[in-house]
Amino acid sequence: MRIEYDRDTCIGMFQCVAEWDAFERDEDAGKAVLADSEETEDGLFVREVPEGSELDAKFAARACPVEAITVYDDDGEQIVP
């Protein structure tokens, strides 16, 4: 499972931070940060979801009010939002 985070879309509500500890607050930028991620495009960050964190990743994606977070299964199918 992998997660994609669009930092440009983020509005800094930090609801993802409350749902999964892979997201951290960047108070200076007013945006969340996805730890251990790789920037694949300008502002788009991607990482694999560790085993045991799948539910937290899904909750983080569902909690985002602007759908800046997307979760994909191992086959590349979008499962959240």
Question: What would you say this structure looks like, in words?
Answer:
The chain is α+β, with helices and mostly antiparallel strands and 81 residues long. The chain has one domain (2-80): Alpha-Beta Plaits (2-Layer Sandwich). Helices cover 19% and strands 36% of the residues. The chain is built from 2 helices and 7 strands; from the N terminus they run E-H-E-E-E-E-H-E-E. A 5-stranded antiparallel β-sheet has the order 4-5-1-6-7, with helices on one face. Strands 2-3 form a two-stranded antiparallel sheet. Strand 2 and strand 3 (31-34) form a beta hairpin. The model has no long low-confidence stretch (mean pLDDT 96).
Brief summary:
By secondary structure, the protein is α+β, with helices and mostly antiparallel strands. It has two helices and seven strands.
Keywords for this structure?
globular, 2 helices, Alpha-Beta Plaits, alpha+beta, two-stranded antiparallel ribbon, 36% strand, 81 residues
Biggest sheet, strands in spatial order? 4-5-1-6-7
CATH architecture: 2-Layer Sandwich
Helicity range: 10-25%
SSE order, one letter for each helix or strand? EHEEEEHEE
- Strand runs, count: 7
* Mean residue pLDDT: 96
User: If helices are DSSP runs of H or I spanning 4 or more residues, what is the number of helices?
Assistant: 2
Tell me the count of domains.
1
Find the structural class using helix and strand composition.
alpha+beta
CATH class: Alpha Beta
How large is the radius of gyration?
A: 11 Å
As an assembly, this protein is single chain
Estimated share of beta-strand residues:
35-45%
Biggest beta sheet summary = 5 strands, antiparallel
CATH fold name, please?
Alpha-Beta Plaits
Calculate the terminal CA-CA distance, rounded to whole Å.
14 Å
